[in-house]
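User: For documentation purposes, I need each entry recorded in a consistent format: the amino acid sequence on its own, followed directly by the corresponding structure tokens. There are two entries in this batch. Please keep commentary to a minimum and don't merge the entries.

Assistant: Recorded as requested. Entry 1:
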Amino acid sequence: MQYYITINGRTVGPMSAQQLMYYDIDSNTPVSRDGSDWAPMFTYPELMELYNRHRGRVSGGTDGVSQRLLCGLLAIFLGYLGIQYFVVGKTTAGILTILLSLVTCGGWSIITLIQGILMLCMSDAEFNRKYVQTTSTFPIF
């Protein structure tokens, strides 16, 4: 099933229920299945169940540890290996990072250091929009 949401006066969607959880939402966020009949999210039991399971953590197999925190630290300390991209499922970006590190003799690690600091400074919702849910193959900043 596909859903639409309204955030900051802007309609976003269609997206799956799982994708919806990556946005900065609450139980009163307007939701629609077809883009026209809007109701608060608490009127959708399937969304509220998923929301309650995911509240306070980011899904992705990190056992409650914020994926943003994990990726930020990996980018700072091991960024030249592209591990932060493998964690969020961007395999192509991880391989490209390794190649860029080799070609630049490790110089690419300066970019990943900056990327890691920026990851630690952003919210989980912003991190998920920029790195997890993006259609970009190689999200840098």
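Entry 2:
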Amino acid sequence: MKVKKCSIKDAVFLSPEDGLYKATSTFMSHRIWAAPVVDEEMHVVGILSIMDILGTFSPDFLPMLSNVDFIKDYGALDLSIKDVKELTKLKVSDIMSKNVVTIDEEGDIMVGISLMKKHTIHTLPVLRDGKLVGIVTSVDICRRFLEVWEGKTKGEG
């Protein structure tokens, strides 16, 4: 089965120059957890996830801790309104992941699943001739397999 059979063609994407507020609003309004970041020619230059955004709200040392149960007062880690307003100065390019795993639309969906498992990701930008034409998520792949199992569509191609 080809990736193009289950990818979303009208994928939501961001620009490197978009602000963090716009990115967050886009995620919430479209109910998505990640979006490719593209240049003017639709070349993928990064990917931004909700976890990247949430990471801006936590202290730098927090990801190094395997367990935070020992912290009794999270108030010491709270952000003030001033801190949140400072975050509005950030651009997508400031926090996006630049090493993006992608897949060609003609690629086999099993390759997509393998890439997702290997890199512990759930979203792959889909390319044609090096340019973004869609996106495929683990949910899209599961939905496609369910359709095939239920006989709603053919599995080949």
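Summary note for entry 2:
Residues 138-149 form the longest helix (12 residues).
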